[in-house]
Amino acid sequence: MSSSTQPSVSTFTSLEFLAFTLGKEEYGIDIQKVQELRGYDAVTRIANTPEFIKGVVNLRGIIVPIIDMRIKFNLGTPVYDQFTVVIILNIGGRVMGMVVDSVSDVITLTHEQLKPAPQMGAIVEADYLLGLGTIEERMLILLDIDKLMSSTDMGLIEKIAA
């Protein structure tokens, strides 16, 4: 049995997730990682960065890289409208923004409502999934935002923010 430094979702009695949409799917991230929500504003594009890194914004003196999750997960062409939200995250002391189609609510899930992520060809790699959250007829794809934002291809974000 291998030991892990990250607690699994099964070690908690309940967790709160911020629910958001990308395309037709609903996702959730740990609310404790969310610093604030903002409307989508123009960003300053950085040359020679992957397409999913939209650019940077100046947030009260902090240069914040902005990642478009629809592009990152290859979910079609993003549309920026009045519902588009930038979720400002604070992950390990790094501030970054993530563009999503909309934010719906904060959901508390109990251990019984958490299901393991299925091992199949999914848009989001299984490494970045905590599991699935079920709330009546709704199903939330729970992202491990720490792992996703510290993944190899996101390493460029640290360089941009520096």
UniProtKB/TrEMBL annotation:
Sorted alphabetically, the Gene Ontology cellular component annotations on this record are: cytosol
Name this protein carries in UniProt? Chemotaxis protein CheW
Source domain of life is: Bacteria
Please name the source species: Herminiimonas fonticola
Pfam families the record matches: CheW
Annotated CheW-like domain ranges read: 14-154
**InterPro entries, A to Z:** CheW (IPR039315), CheW-like_dom_sf (IPR036061), CheW-lke_dom (IPR002545)
What keywords were assigned to this record? Answer: Cytoplasm
Q: Which GO terms describe its biological process?
A: chemotaxis; signal transduction
Tell me where it resides. Answer: Cytoplasm
